[in-house]
Design a protein that fits this description.
Blueprint (H helix, E strand, L loop, with lengths): L10 E5 L4 H11 L3 E6 L15 H4 L6 E4 L5 H12 L3 E4 L5 H4 L4 H7 L4 E6 L14 H8 L1 H4 L14 H22 L6 E6 H7 L2 H10 L15 E5 L4 E5 L3 H10 L3 H5 L6 H6 L1 H12 L4 H10 L4 E3 L10 H6 L2 E6 L2 E7 L23 H7 L4 H9 L5
Parallel strand pairs: 1-2, 1-4, 2-3, 4-5, 5-6
Antiparallel strand pairs: 7-8, 8-9, 10-11
Length: 393
């Protein structure tokens, strides 16, 4: 059966740094788009210097080709515009105001390519009072409420273990580019400009967590347990921790049977969801004592047999040893000449007739400069001249 990639024939130019822009462009690359990554000479994407290196960079930069261009020079800006002339989409997440100094703002790019889908990922957006404030993931988590939600009641807020602010913006950028490409393909638009502020994206992910504040006009409690169901959260076993999500009445009764605690099922303090929430400290004490008597695997086997939602709490090493992860091939390596294999995480979506794939390992800085410039019409002498002037590397 022939390989059919959804975005075959689509060219995306990425001027991205760290996670937000690069992850969005990589997602489009996984779907078949050709992604040309513009990087500054010598240093490259900031992610190249973030530890652990190169693993940090590798996880968000497969299926791309790298061209090293000095966008501070007029010659380099002209090269970038040449790359954008035939591109279908442009994704950038540079510092506030930087894209204008590079001569790659939307008006400049539209002049050479009015049909382009231009997507900018910003911290706060052009009409924000914080428009000129630099944004990193931690800044966005702090302002969005995500950090305020994370941690235990009574403890200080915690930065989420994931770069949630980056990833939320990245996902909206990806879907917005796809939607605009479809609208262009169907004749609804000629080209489009999309702005995705990281703060707005992160706030939209509050969704059901914001519901608590909408109802009570109070901050949602910072807790490791569900605020509307119980038991629903972590418990400590003999050799590790699990989560149990037995918040409904039938699941609660099933849980009591699994752990041989019929006395809890008959205890009036735990008769209904409101009762269990009102008496949650006592409920947790009872369950913690019971779960601590046996191993994590012992309880998970029995809970799964009775279809009680439960799972081990893995760290980022244990997760790769799980049977599901192994069977789905979610961790894989991409070979590359002259460098160690790149460890990457597989795309989660599986198509019936289409495919995602791993065509290109994460590129070394400027590894494709000559080839890409040749493809857009530069001859060898012109490329040498640009390199001698420091416009490309």
């Amino acid at each position: 059966m022939p390989v059919t990639r959804p975005l075959d024939g689509i060219t995306v130019v990425e001027l991205g740094q760290v996670v937000a822009g690069p992850f969005a462009a990589m997602t489009l690359g996984d779907l078949g788009a050709e992604v040309i990554k513009i990087e500054p000479p010598e240093r490259g994407d900031l992610a190249r210097s973030v530890e652990p290196s190169p693993e940090y960079f590798d996880t968000v930069n497969r299926n791309k080709r790298s061209v090293a261009v000095d966008l501070k020079s007029e010659a380099g800006q002209a090269v970038a515009l040449d790359l954008l002339t035939e591109a279908d989409a442009f994704i950038e997440n540079t510092k506030p105001g930087r894209i204008h100094t590079f001569g790659l703002d939307r008006d400049a790019v539209r002049t050479v390519n009015p049909r382009i889908i231009y997507c900018t990922i910003t911290g706060f957006g052009a009409d924000s009072p914080y428009e000129d404030v630099p944004a990193f993931d931690m800044i966005i988590q702090a302002m969005s409420g995500i950090m305020g939600l994370t941690g235990r009641e009574g403890d200080p807020p915690l930065w989420s273990g994931l770069p949630s602010g980056d990833l939320a913006a990245s996902m909206y950028a990806t879907q917005s580019v796809l939607a605009a490409l479809y609208a262009r393909e169907t004749g609804q638009i000629d080209g489009e400009y999309v702005e995705v502020p990281m703060l707005d994206a992160a706030i939209s992910w509050l969704c059901s967590r914001a519901a608590y504040t909408f109802r009570h006009d109070e901050p949602r409690p910072r807790t490791e347990r569900h605020t509307g169901m119980a038991p629903f959260g972590p418990f400590t076993c003999e050799d590790g921790r699990i989560v149990v999500a037995a918040g409904t009445d039938p699941l609660w009764r099933g849980l009591c049977g699994v752990i041989d605690r019929g006395d809890l099922a008959e205890d009036g303090r735990f008769d209904s969801i409101p009762d269990r929430l009102a008496n949650r400290p006592a409920l947790i004490d009872e369950l913690d004592e019971t779960f601590a008597a046996q191993s994590r695997d012992y309880w998970l086997e029995r809970l799964h047999e009775r279809q009680i939602p439960a799972a081990p709490i893995y760290d980022t090493k244990e997760v790769w040893e799980d049977e599901h992860v192994l069977r789905r091939g979610l961790r894989t390596a991409m070979s590359r000449p002259g460098a160690p294999d790149a460890e990457v995480i597989a795309p989660p979506a599986r198509f019936e007739r289409l495919t995602t794939d791993y065509r290109d390992p994460p590129p070394s800085l400027g590894s494709d400069t000559d080839a890409i410039l040749s493809e857009v019409g530069y001859d060898a002498a012109e490329i040498d001249a640009l390199r001698s002037r420091g416009a490309v590397e």
